[in-house]
């Protein structure tokens, strides 16, 4: 067995993701983040770790399913030019693991991470 094989033997490799930013123009009252491409209106495939979202109005963003997101970390930045808010919810349209739904205002961001059972996160103020 090679050294590389020995290092990763028994470990589960994560899903491939691009490093870098992904721009999303939501334009809906709700945006659902998914791991697999779909053609459903309001669904956006997560392709990177940094999501720069222009909500086009105050919206709810539903994070990807917890069971498929173990170890995932996402940075969500509200790039809207007006005072529109992004409210972040778990995939089941409910509160995050700490019992709240963070609201990301204009020019703010949030860091969200999943343990395979629940999403957790917090908002970072004034990213300008």
Short description:
By secondary structure, the chain is mainly β. It has one helix and ten strands; from the N terminus they run αββββββββββ. Helix content is 5%, strand content 40%.
Task: Report the order of strands and helices.
Answer: HEEEEEEEEEE
What name does the CATH topology carry?
Jelly Rolls
CATH architecture: Sandwich
Give the uncertain stretches in residue-range form: 1-16
Structure description:
This protein has one helix at residues 3-8, and strands at 18-25, 30-34, 43-45, 48-54, 59-62, 73-78, 86-89, 103-104, 109-114, 119-124. With 128 residues, the protein is mostly beta strands. It has one domain: Jelly Rolls, CATH 2.60.120. The strands form two sheets. A five-stranded mixed β-sheet has the order 1-4-6-9-10, with no helix packed on it. A five-stranded mixed β-sheet has the order 3-2-5-7-8, with no helix packed on it. Strand 9 and strand 10 form a beta hairpin. The protein is globular, with a radius of gyration of 16 Å. Mean pLDDT is 77; it is low at 1-16.
What is this structure's SSE topology?
Elements: H1 3-8, E1 18-25, E2 30-34, E3 43-45, E4 48-54, E5 59-62, E6 73-78, E7 86-89, E8 103-104, E9 109-114, E10 119-124
Parallel strand pairs: 1-4, 2-3, 2-5, 4-6, 5-7
Antiparallel strand pairs: 6-9, 7-8, 9-10
